[in-house]
């Protein structure tokens, strides 16, 4: 909540800065997974100047399992830094964490862009790319947590703007891919332009962050005492829960920040457990939310087990042409991001089923059906399973339901968890749900290796 004597945000410069910073935090993940066809082309030894950026070279027999590895090495850093964030944030100054992370991400993306013009063996290219993915996402996790720490001192509307920027990152990456493919230049120049785009985005993020100390409004809120810094990330999550915004992020990593702490709806108090002002028990909180946490794990396990590892391999069943070229960027990545964002925004209008209903576990378990449905779509060069859904319409329908259900159920579980505990236990619930979020992402990325092997 804004302080009464706070200065005005002139020309909304602080809000715009946090919006761009939010966009910058999720550009790495989205630009890498959207460019899977490009990486597959390089790993199959295709001449990048002759191949189209959007051409799908993926097959179940892929030697490097690029789709699977890029997903796994993107999610493991999130799990790691979820466990280490308290230690890390106390040892390294905030400015060093944020600027250092942005600079490292910028340099690694610049390296990725340079490699477009460098001929090298597929094995060496794979090793360099995987190392870049790991370090980019590691520093991205540090960057994200540090920025949410700063947002803990700002009015909640700035957290909303930051999340809105994150929510556009996936759509932005998909549109950048489509524009690169439609530009009419050769594929190598197209790929170079595609990877230069996030470099520009990260540069803008650096400029925005460096400008904050020069803005009176930002200085007023960011000049905090050391005691105020403790637990800022969780406080920010609590603020987000009280806002009725629709700009919920559309990437898996950001789901932990869509908690809904409704101050007007208190959780039911058990007669034998009076409210205690002291430090809540982690075990007691887990006993109350274990089923909701398990649902969150399962939602992300299903999603990351097939997206993008399996879905990026699906091709159009129509004859070669423009639609075949644009099919996967549009129907896989762009469609997923738009519908996932829509699904998350639905919880701003209704929450169904509620925390006492057993329908939620049922709905979450039904999503397991998407695994065989996508595996039976039009993936060429398979060796075990048949193709039962060859038409493009099947894949588009599955993706619509898959993305909407992912967004809605993720947001719903994160909204319901704080309602199942006492007010003083909500921060612990938020921390636990963040951990289970990262656990679900890592489990799904690991399972993708098995499902790809079954094709």
TrEMBL record:
It catalyses: thymine(out) = thymine(in); adenine(out) = adenine(in); uracil(in) = uracil(out); uridine(out) = uridine(in). The chain crosses the membrane at residues 12-39, 69-89, 96-118, 124-148, 160-179, 191-212, 289-314, 326-347, 359-381, 393-416, 428-451. Keywords: Cell membrane, Glycoprotein, Membrane, Phosphoprotein, Transmembrane, Transmembrane helix, Transport. SUPFAM superfamilies: MFS general substrate transporter. It is found in: Apical cell membrane; Basolateral cell membrane. InterPro entries: ENT1/ENT2 (IPR034764), Eqnu_transpt (IPR002259), MFS_trans_sf (IPR036259). It holds the Pfam family Nucleoside_tran. One of its GO terms (cellular component) is apical plasma membrane. It is a multi-pass membrane protein. It comes from the Eukaryota. One of its GO terms (molecular function) is uridine transmembrane transporter activity. GO terms for biological process: adenine transport; adenosine transport; guanine transport; hypoxanthine transport; thymine transport. Its main location: membrane. Belongs to the SLC29A/ENT transporter (TC 2.A.57) family. Bidirectional uniporter involved in the facilitative transport of nucleosides and nucleobases, and contributes to maintaining their cellular homeostasis. Functions as a Na(+)-independent, passive transporter. Involved in the transport of nucleosides such as inosine, adenosine, uridine, thymidine, cytidine and guanosine. Also able to transport purine nucleobases (hypoxanthine, adenine, guanine) and pyrimidine nucleobases (thymine, uracil). Involved in nucleoside transport at basolateral membrane of kidney cells, allowing liver absorption of nucleoside metabolites. This is Equilibrative nucleoside transporter 2.
């Amino acid at each position: 909540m804004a302080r009464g004597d706070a200065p005005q945000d002139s020309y909304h410069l602080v809000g715009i800065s946090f919006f761009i910073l939010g966009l910058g935090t999720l550009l790495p993940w989205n630009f890498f997974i959207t460019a899977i066809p490009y990486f597959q082309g390089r790993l199959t030894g295709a001449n990048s100047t002759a191949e189209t950026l959007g051409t799908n070279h993926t097959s179940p027999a892929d030697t490097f399992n690029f789709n699977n590895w890029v997903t796994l090495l993107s999610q493991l850093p999130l799990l790691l830094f979820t466990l280490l964030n308290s230690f890390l944030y106390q040892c390294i100054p905030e400015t060093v964490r944020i600027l250092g992370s942005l600079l490292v991400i910028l340099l690694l993306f610049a390296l990725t862009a340079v490699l477009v013009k460098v001929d090298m063996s597929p094995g060496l290219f794979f090793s360099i790319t995987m190392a870049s993915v790991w370090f980019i996402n590691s520093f991205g996790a540090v960057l994200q947590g540090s920025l949410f720490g700063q947002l803990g001192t700002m009015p909640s509307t700035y957290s909303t703007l930051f999340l809105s920027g994150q929510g556009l990152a996936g759509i932005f990456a998909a549109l950048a891919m489509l524009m690169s493919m439609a530009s009419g230049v050769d594929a190598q120049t197209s790929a170079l332009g595609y990877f230069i785009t996030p470099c520009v985005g990260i540069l803008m993020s650096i400029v925005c962050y460096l400008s904050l100390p020069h803005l009176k409004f930002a200085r007023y809120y960011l000049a905090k005492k050391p005691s105020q810094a403790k637990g800022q990330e969780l406080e920010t999550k609590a603020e987000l829960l009280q806002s009725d915004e629709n700009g919920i992020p559309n990437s898996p990593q950001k789901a932990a920040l869509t908690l809904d702490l409704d101050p007007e709806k208190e959780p039911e108090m058990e007669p034998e457990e009076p409210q205690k002002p002291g430090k809540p028990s982690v075990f007691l909180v887990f006993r109350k939310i274990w089923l909701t946490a398990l649902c969150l794990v399962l939602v992300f396990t299903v999603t990351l087990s097939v997206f993008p590892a399996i879905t990026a391999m699906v091709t159009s069943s129509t004859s070669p042409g423009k639609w075949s070229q644009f099919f996967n960027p549009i129907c896989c990545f762009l469609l997923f991001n738009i519908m996932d964002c829509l699904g998350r925004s639905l919880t701003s209008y209704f929450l169904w089923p509620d925390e006492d209903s057993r329908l939620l576990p049922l709905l979450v378990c039904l999503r397991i059906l998407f695994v065989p449905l996508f595996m039976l779509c039009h993936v060429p060069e398979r060796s075990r399973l048949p193709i039962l859904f060859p038409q493009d319409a099947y894949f588009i329908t599955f993706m619509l339901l898959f993305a909407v259900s992912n967004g809605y159920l993720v947001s719903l579980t994160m909204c319901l968890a704080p309602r199942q505990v006492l007010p003083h236990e909500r921060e612990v619930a938020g921390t636990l749900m963040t951990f289970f979020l990262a656990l679900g992402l890592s489990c799904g990325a690991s399972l993708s290796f098995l499902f790809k092997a079954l094709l």
